[in-house]
Specification:
The complex is a heterodimer of chains A (154) and B (260). Chain A is α/β, with parallel strands linked by helices and 154 residues long. In chain A, 26% of the residues lie in helices and 33% in strands. Chain A folds into 2 domains: 35 residues; 107 residues, no CATH class. Chain A is elongated. With 260 residues, chain B is an all-alpha fold. The longest helix of chain B has 40 residues. The model of chain B has no long low-confidence stretch (mean pLDDT 90).
Chain lengths: 154, 260
């Protein structure tokens, strides 16, 4: 069997490029680079309306992403939306009286949870509940209210 | 009428016979892979002709497909003021669909046709029978290394295609059209899921690599050993590969992304 060294090198280069492309996709294109994994803790918040929030929507504090939404379910008793958030464990000093609000990124962008830090000395732990929450703003509702106010004003 | 029925019966029988031969051929090829692994030189040579020689066409096509996606996507998205989503659009369409499918089609045209012609000519010039005379199993010696090479090369080529396509989209979107650099990447990373998108794309390309290599090698092995037979077999390889790639792509997409 005849084979040249250049052929070996080229095949090696080809395989290396292919694997590098895979890694590039994993780290640069997908969310694997910012994957939180097991190094996280869960906090729970109840909203009257969680709007267009989805699993994996970002959770941010002061505009910095600190975690993501883990699950959204309905409480059958109170008809509230129960949102579990996974927060990266390096952010373990969130005050226990922090609040959570659902905002929209841009006018038509995706919805995310913003944490408003409180002033307590105690910190949120795994499975802690956030008490102060404000629901998602539904655009139609707002427009409806605005129109109503306009109509009443004149 | 009777003639028509007879023809229909004949076609059915011959296509079933071909399917059966193809399955036996595949089983034989797969058992031969065990004999390839102790002799990596065989595999290496085929990796060169199947993978390395397809490298250029895949990378250049990937770059242009990415650049076109960047341009077209920008035109549409800017109507809605959502240019920042360009990165997601380019990456999702490349990783999920265009990467595996277009690179498999190019692979069938570039490497598959060459494999069929090579094997068909070996058959026509009675090299395969010659090997059998010397008690060398031609399937293990000739077919299995080529099959394995195609099977390994295809996912690598598809990954390269997608990665380079995203860079092409970046060049056009951020470099030429002025989309924000940070938004391009961060929206992409927030919306492309590793398991859902990238792994599924790789699974697709693995399936396509398997099917294209199988079709190409079988058509060559099954060719009528004349120059006309080999040319017909080469055509069939490209046509059948394209059909199988696109059909399988629909089935795989329905299984992976559709709620069926």
């Amino acid at each position: 069997m005849q084979h040249s060294k250049t052929q070996d090198t080229l095949v090696g280069l080809f395989v290396a490029c292919g694997i590098a492309a895979l890694f590039y996709m994993a780290l640069q294109i997908s969310n694997l680079g910012s994957y939180t994994g097991n190094d996280s803790y869960t906090i729970i918040a109840r909203f009257q309306n969680s709007g267009g929030l989805k699993v994996k929507s970002p959770v941010s504090l002061a505009g910095v992403r600190i975690g993501q939404v883990a699950s959204i379910s309905l409480d059958k008793e109170s008809h509230e939306s129960v949102v579990e958030m996974r927060i990266e464990s390096k952010y373990d000093n969130l005050p226990i009286d922090s609040g959570a609000s659902i905002y929209t990124a841009g006018l038509l962008g995706e919805q995310y949870i913003s944490i408003d830090p409180g002033s307590s000395e105690e910190f949120l732990k795994d499975k802690s509940k956030l008490d102060i929450t404000s629901s998602a703003i539904v655009l139609e509702e707002m427009i409806g209210k605005f129109m109503l106010n306009k109509a009443e004003g004149k | 009428m009777l003639e028509f029925l007879e023809n229909l019966g004949k076609t059915t029988r011959s296509s079933f016979a071909k399917l059966g031969r193809g399955t036996f051929f595949l089983a034989h090829t797969l058992t031969g892979i065990g004999d390839v692994l102790p002799r990596p030189n065989l595999l290496l040579k085929q990796m060169y002709s199947v993978g390395v020689l397809s490298f250029l066409i895949i990378t250049i096509s990937g770059l242009f497909v990415g650049m076109v996606l960047g341009l077209q996507g920008f035109n549409i998205l800017s109507d809605f003021g959502a240019e920042e989503s360009l990165g997601v659009m380019v990456a999702a369409s490349l990783v999920r669909e265009l990467g595996p499918v277009v690179s498999a089609l190019l692979f069938a045209g570039r490497a598959g046709s060459a494999l069929t012609a090579e094997i068909g000519l070996m058959k026509a010039t009675e090299q395969l029978s010659g090997m059998e005379m010397m008690a060398v199993d031609p399937i293990k010696r000739i077919i299995s290394p080529r099959f394995l090479a195609g099977f390994i090369s295809m996912p690598l080529l598809a990954s390269l295609f997608s990665a380079i396509g995203v860079m092409g989209g970046y060049l056009v979107g951020v470099g030429m059209l002025g989309v924000d650099d940070g938004a391009f990447w961060s929206q992409m990373q927030a919306n492309i899921d590793f398991q859902e998108d990238i792994i599924n794309g790789v699974i697709k390309s693995v399936v396509f690599g398997f099917v294209v290599s199988w079709i190409a090698l079988f058509e060559g092995y099954d060719a009528i050993p004349t120059s006309e037979g080999v040319s017909r077999a080469t055509t069939r390889t490209v046509v059948n590969s394209a059909f199988s790639i696109l059909g399988l792509d629909f089935i795989l997409t329905a299984l992976m992304f559709g709620d069926i």
